[in-house]
Amino acid sequence: MDEIRIIEVKQSVFEDNNKDAEELRAQLKTEKTFLLNLMSSPGSGKTTTLKALAKELSGKVNWAVMEADIDSAVDAEAMQKEGVCSIQIHTGGMCHLDADMTRQGLCELGTEGLDLVVLENVGNLVCPAEFDTGASKNMTILSVPEGHDKPLKYPLMYETCDLLVINKIDVLDYFDFDKEKVVQYAKMRNPDIDIIFISAKTGEGIPELCEWILKNVSEWNS
Amino acid sequence: MDEIRIIEVKQSVFEDNNKDAEELRAQLKTEKTFLLNLMSSPGSGKTTTLKALAKELSGKVNWAVMEADIDSAVDAEAMQKEGVCSIQIHTGGMCHLDADMTRQGLCELGTEGLDLVVLENVGNLVCPAEFDTGASKNMTILSVPEGHDKPLKYPLMYETCDLLVINKIDVLDYFDFDKEKVVQYAKMRNPDIDIIFISAKTGEGIPELCEWILKNVSEWNS
């Protein structure tokens, strides 16, 4: 296995993150690279979902993954094992990525010829939602064991996301998780949010998620 | 049911959080009130664990709960239903509590005659670990579905905690969770950390957790 590239990114000294984000988004549009910002709590299954997508996306799109974490390179290693080009971004203790940190990661990765880059943000349901990374679209994962009340408690995450993926539906029987309520609460925060139920473990719903991604990549890059 | 008291706390304009925290801790020591700061990812079972403790602690200690969240009062309502005195703290979007915010909550709660106050921090494995709240001890919950690799990815949380509770062990069979590895990774971050395995749902391990809390309350208040 190739050595994992670990990029230490630093928070920008310039404060205007929204401007940085708009510029990065415009640049990626010109370069025809779709950037998907993937956010969730720790342990909801971001990397496992990307691993499940690896097979489904193979041959349909040129893509790479940027794994952000405070420490360790376990996620980038996991993606590399799946044959997906990936780098590990270390945030130096920061709880989120901003647009400038994302740009540093993209520069190291190199986006030429890439239709899609997935940014796996730091596992955190609060702070990443506050910082526009310059992504084309935002996606969040909520896993069944976390409970259906999360959109009530973490409003901004659901307000800023275009897609909510409900993961670990294979264990629905073992948890008090109300599928109707989670849809109701998420739509209360964001009426336009798309919602897809999956199990990254069994593969259920992965084709539908793949279709959502390919449709959005295609619209962005056309 | 009584109306839930919701306290809107504001971050201190003074920057010296460590000094604030030391002062608050000294004050609580004098007042013989043990403050337990409970941190974890969203959905790991903080409130469910406190509900399970309610029966076990009943009659053994005078206690109350401060539920911190960005929005909603669902947790304070849940505790009140269990007959535990509780208030809801709203952080105004903040991803953590600092010592001054904790003090504001304690003032509203009123600590006279209380042996134990549990502060349920905002669901977040990153930021709450960076801010000393003035608590007597720190505790974190990691639930089985989140995976055993969390101490590798979120070092500070495990470094700052005196107790790690592994929750949802009733679903161990349905997840790839290695009990030995999680102990090894947590001890790597903090050799002195105590570790207790529980299921807040079935009650397994709750007496042991109760014993840990009562022992620490007794030591603090003696």
Description of the molecule:
The structure is a homodimer of 222-residue chains. By secondary structure, chain A is of the alpha/beta class. Chain A has a single domain (6-216), classed as Rossmann fold. Chain A is built from 8 helices and 8 strands. In chain A, strands 1-4-3-5-2-6-7-8 form an 8-stranded parallel sheet, sandwiched between helices. In chain A, strand 7, helix 7 and strand 8 (194-197) form a beta-alpha-beta unit. In chain A, helix 2 (46-57) crosses helix 8 (206-221). The longest helix of chain A is centred in the C-terminal third of the chain and has 16 residues, at 206-221. The radius of gyration of chain A is 16 Å and the shape is globular. The N and C termini of chain A lie far apart (35 Å). The mean pLDDT of chain A is 93.
Write the layout of secondary structure elements.
2 copies of one chain form a homodimer.
Chain A: E1 6-8, H1 17-30, E2 34-40, H2 46-57, E3 63-69, H3 74-81, E4 85-90, H4 99-109, E5 116-120, E6 137-143, H5 150-153, H6 155-160, E7 163-167, H7 179-189, E8 194-197, H8 206-221
Parallel strand pairs in A: 1-4, 2-5, 2-6, 3-4, 3-5, 6-7, 7-8
Helix pairs in contact in A: 2-8
